[in-house]
Write a structure and sequence with these properties.
Layout: H1 2-5, H2 35-53, H3 63-80, H4 82-107, H5 112-147, H6 149-168, H7 176-185, H8 187-227, H9 229-239, H10 245-283, H11 289-298, H12 305-321, H13 325-355, H14 359-400, H15 403-406
Helix pairs in contact: 2-9, 4-5, 4-8, 5-8, 5-12, 10-11, 10-13, 10-14, 11-12, 12-13, 13-14
């Protein structure tokens, strides 16, 4: 109806026209009439209409008030749907990272659907390769730990507990009679604790099932995001007022550059931390220490996951290999030093320099976004800080060029 009348919002009429040769008023090409594109235009065109219609001066509302109200409503909607949005957000982030590969395949003549499928399968194969390396190693280490459990108990009774008693006092007997006596005396408290823990266990089980469902749905979402990425980009661009289109283009390119530098810097951090952990574990004499260190380095991309996974694997391997606590202490020291170097020197220096943030602001952004958004905030803290830096840089340039600043 908008394209037929052309009176309500002229900017929208070419976008829904039947002829694919028509263009936007600023030269942007119109989208071809394909069934999937028609469905997407049915969403974006009314959104454009809603976004712009109340900015007319005859309504008496400033465009900035309308934009603020729109984004506040959008934020409230995201907050209300936060429990189901995580797989969509993860798929969108992965699509942003992988879209350049799709574009390179498109330049070689591969259809976008096939290119999206190839890139999605490549990402799944990389993830599967990591799982095939990590899961068997975990199962092997836990199996070896189970077989050596009697020796570990004997070590604790004859060496560890006497040493603790000699240096710190107290008594920690580890035998069946003492354990049975303790359980008998505290049976009531244990029952009460179990009754309180059971609902939480059920809730966590439901959360785990939801997480598995989201993981299964993620490849499908990733494919559709990759397939429709350009159309989503054109739809967002069409929402921008024409007088701001140059500013939007410049800022979006700067954000692309900053996020690209962040990813390249993060890859370098992963390589460096893999070498740090691997070399340190080799120096302790730990068997398969270099492999465990490289796994920890690869997982450094997720905050604390790399250190935690590597520490768990290395601790199990140390318990199986070393007969004294000195080897275990050396393994723990490697991860303590590595985590310190990563948090306060390597990541702030390498990633911070690439995205234009000083080490102080890198540490502050990680802590601030972690406080505001929890684990997800720590994961996206640096890229969000880089985006904020681009916006602040643009805002400061506009401020210093404004009459408010220059007027005497």
């Amino acid at each position: 109806m908008l394209a037929k009348t052309g009176r309500i919002l002229p900017e929208l009429a070419p976008a829904v026209a039947l002829r694919p040769s028509e263009t936007f008023s600023d030269g942007l090409p119109a989208v071809r009439r394909k069934p999937r594109r028609v469905m997407l235009r049915a969403f974006t065109d009314p959104l454009q209409y809603t976004f712009f219609m109340y900015t007319k001066k005859k309504r008496g509302l400033s465009p900035w008030i309308s934009c603020t109200a729109f984004f506040l409503a959008l934020g409230a909607l995201v907050l209300a749907l936060r429990d189901i949005l995580m797989p969509f957000i993860v798929a969108a982030v992965l699509a942003y990272i992988l879209n350049p590969l799709v574009e390179k395949l498109r330049d070689k003549g591969v259809p976008r659907g096939a290119a999206s499928m190839m890139v999605m399968m490549f990402a799944l194969l990389v993830l599967l390769a990591l799982l095939l390396i990590l899961v068997p190693m975990l199962l092997t280490q836990f199996g070896n730990l189970t077989n050596r459990l009697p020796q570990l108990i004997n070590f604790a009774q004859n060496k560890a507990l006497p040493w603790l008693h000699a240096h710190f006092g107290g008594s920690l007997p580890l035998n069946k009679e003492a354990a049975a006596h303790w359980l008998q005396n505290h049976s009531g408290a244990l029952q009460q604790a179990a009754s309180r823990i059971a609902p939480a266990v059920v809730e966590q089980g439901g959360a785990l099932a939801a997480g598995v469902g989201n993981f299964i749905m993620l490849p499908l979402l990733l494919y559709y995001f990759l397939f429709d990425w350009q159309h989503w980009a054109h739809g967002i661009r069409a929402l921008i007022p024409r007088r701001f289109i140059d500013t939007y283009t410049r800022i979006s390119r700067e954000m692309d550059d900053v996020l690209g530098e962040f990813l390249r810097g993060q890859l370098m951090v992963m390589l460096i931390m893999g070498l740090v952990y691997g070399t340190g574990l080799m120096l302790t004499g730990l068997d398969s220490g270099f492999a465990i260190g490289m796994i920890a380095g690869i997982l450094v991309f997720v905050p604390y996951l790399g250190a935690f996974t590597g520490l768990l694997l290395a601790t199990i391997a140390a318990l199986l290999q070393f007969d004294t606590w000195h080897g275990l202490a050396a393994v723990w020291a490697v991860f303590a030093v590595g985590q310190f170097l990563e948090s306060f020197f390597i990541t702030p220096k390498i990633v911070g320099d690439r995205i234009g943030l000083s080490p102080f602001w890198v540490i502050f952004s990680l802590m601030a976004f972690g406080q505001l958004m929890g684990f997800v905030g720590m994961l996206v803290g640096l890229p969000l800080a880089a985006v904020c830096l681009v916006l602040l840089r643009e805002g400061s340039q506009a401020y210093f060029a404004s009459r408010f600043y220059r007027h005497r």
